Amino acid sequence: MPKLKTAHPLLTLSMEAMIDQIVHRLKPCPEEDIYRLVHALLSDGLQQLHQHVSQGKTDLGIIDAIVSNTCRVGLSLPSGAIKTRFEADFGSVRNMDLCEYVTKLYQWQQMLRQAIKQRPRKLMLSLFSPFLVEFEQQKFEDVEVPGQYLRLTDSSDDFVRIERFIPELRVVLRSNGVLRMLAIRGTDGSIVHFSVQHFTSRYNHQEERWVQFFRNLDAAGEHDRNTWEQRRIALHLPTIVSLAPHIRLVQEQPESFSLQDVYDKACLRNGTPEIAPALYAVGKMNELISQLPSIDAASEVLFEHICQTMVPASLLQDDVRMHAVSPMEYWLYRENFTYQVSASIALTYMIACTQRAPAKLSISRATGNICLHDLVPTQATPGLIHSKEAVPFRLTPNIQTFVTELGLEGIVPFAIYKVIQRFTDVEHLLRDFLDLYVRDELIHVPAVKSLAAANPQALAEMCERNVKLIEARANQMVETLPPKEVQDKELSPMQPLFRLMTQAVAPSNLAKMDFIWAPWL
Length: 521
Hints:
By secondary structure, the chain is α+β, with helices and mostly antiparallel strands. The protein has helices at 2-7, 9-25, 30-54, 64-76, 81-90, 98-117, 130-133, 135-138, 204-220, 227-232, 259-270, 276-289, 295-309, 315-323, 327-350, 397-424, 429-443, 446-454, 456-478, 483-489, 495-505, 507-510, and strands at 122-124, 162-165, 168-174, 177-186, 191-198, 240-244, 247-251, 361-363, 370-372, 379-381, 384-385. Helix 3 packs parallel to helix 12 (276-289) and helix 15 (327-350) packs across helix 16 (397-424).
C-alpha cells in the first residue's frame, strides 16, 4: 500500500474515500442485524434438532453451546423494546426443549421479516452517501470497476472505469440476511450490481481462493474450447472483492433467486411455516421407530411423506413457468439450467464441497445461469478433504423434476463429463494448481499448522494425499468402461458417473440429510 500511495497518490485517495463511504455509510440497521443473528440461531437449532431425530433421541434438551450463543445475542442487542421482548422470550432458554426454541426463533424471524418488508425496497443513495452520488465530481483520478483484476489479463488498459454510481440503492431481503445493492455505471455504458455484505463468515478467504482456483483452471483450458462449450457449460463464478476483514462486495444479478426463495414464496401462498417439515419429522419419528425396523427406514418414510404432502416436487418448475413469456423461452431456460446444474455438480463434488443448502444456489431469472456461493472444500477430519454426507452432490426432487428424466439421463452426465474433461485432458494441469491451493487450504487449520511447524514433511505428505483424492474424484466423473464390459453387461459407458447420480437421487440417502440442507427441495 505505501508503494501505491507513492506511485499513484490521487488514485489511492479516490479509492480510500470510496471504500470508506461504502464501509461506514451502508451498514445494516439494527432490525436487519437482529434478523441475521436470529437466522443464525435458528439454523443452529434446526441442525441440533436433526441430530437428535437422526439418532432416535427422545430428550430434546438444548445443549450448552446454543444456550451460550443465545445469551450472547441477547447481550449484544441495543437497549429498547426489542431487547426486553427477546429477554422475556429467551431468558429461560435452558429450560426449553428444542422444538419450543426453534418455534420461538421462527416467530421472531417472521416478525422481523414483516417489519423489514414494510420499509421501501428502493432508497435514494444520497440519503446515505452524497459523496458516492457525486463521485464523478469528487474523484481525483479514474477508478476501475471493482473485480476486474481477478481476470487473467496481461494489461489493464481495456478495463472499464467507474463513470458514476446509480443514485438508487436496493434493499434485498434474503432468508439469511438483508443486503444493500449498489449499481455502478461504467465508461462503456454497462451497469454492474454489487451487494454489500457485512459480517460475513470465517470461510470468506477460503471461498475467494477456490473461486480463483476454478477461474484459473477454466482460463487455462479456454483456447481448446469450441463456441458451444463456451456458451453452454461456462462456469459462472462469483466476483468477490474484499473491502475489510468483515465486509466485501459480491457482484450479483438483481433478478436472481434461489431454491430457498422459491420455497419461501410457496409457503407464503399456502400459509404454512417454512419449518413445518422439520417439526413434522420430529413429532412423527418416535411413533415410526416403534413400527419400523430402523431409524433409517423411519427417516425414509418421513421424507417420502413430506415430498408428497408438504413440499411438492414441482415448486421450481411452476415458478419458472409462471415467469416464462412463451413455451419456447421456458424450454430454452430449462435447457440452460440443466447444463448449469451439471457444472455445479462437477465443481462441488470434485473438491468435496458439502452443506449445499438451497440458499447457496443463485439462479439468474433471465438466463438460468447458476452462480455458486460458499464454494469451499470440507475437511472430514483436520487435514483430510473429504465428504461424510450421504449424497455426493445436490440433485433433489425439485431439481430432478425441472430437469426432467431425459435431462438426467442425457444432458447431465454428458455435461459433467465435458466440464471435468477440460480440467483433466491437459497433462498435469489439475495437479499443478492443486499443489498450491491445497497447501494453502490445509495450512489454515490450526491442527495442521502446528503439525507443519514441527514436521514439514508431514505437511507435504498430507498435501499429496489430498491432491490424489481430488484427482480421484475428478477421474471418477470422466471414467468410461471398456467396450467389452459395456457390451457383455449391457451397461452405460459412463456407469461410474451414473452410480454417483443414483446415490444422489436415492430417497434412502436424501432422507439422511439435515433440515438446513432441505432434501425435499
